[in-house]
Structure formats: structure tokens, C-alpha cells
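Incident review: delayed structure delivery

Summary: a single-chain prediction request sat in the queue longer than the usual turnaround. Root cause was a stuck worker, restarted by the on-call engineer. No data loss occurred. The affected request and its eventual output are reproduced below so the record is complete for anyone auditing the incident later.

Affected input:
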Amino acid sequence: MTDVQKLETEDQYHHVRFRDPDRFDEIRTPDWAKNAAESVREGSEVRTGKVKDGDDWEVESVLIPKEVDKDEARSDAKQIVEKIES
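Output delivered after worker restart:
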């Protein structure tokens, strides 16, 4: 299980980062990940990154609506990543 590296609150979301964005060539918010995110917390989004010099895509961060507190956001984000990476 990937650990939370950082949690920042911006705009309408808690940005729960799991991997350094600098390790990716590009970062996207794919539609296919929305079901896993929404099944844990409505309004959540997943950002995935394409690993530099590779073909793999990994979860970079999870956006959780900032209506929830930071502990809950961290827990929800971990659940979402678990669903996607299992």
C-alpha cells in the first residue's frame, strides 16, 4: 500500500498526494477511475500519472471534497487507491 506523502487543501478539494508529480511525464484525471473514487466519497477524483521512460500509469493523487475533515480525507483517499491498485 502506498502511503500519503502530502495533504494540501486548495479550492474545493483536499489534495492527497501519494507519489511525487515530478516522476511522471503527464498527469490525467481518467474517467475510468471516477467509479472507484465515487464509491468511497461522492465528488472525489483520481489523478494518475504516466511514469517517465515507461508505459505504467500510477495514482499520483486523490482529490477529496474539502467538506470532510483532513483525517477523513486521508482515510478516503487510501481506500480509493486500494480499490484501484488491488
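Verification: The chain has one domain: 6-85.
Action items: add queue-age alerting; document worker restart procedure.
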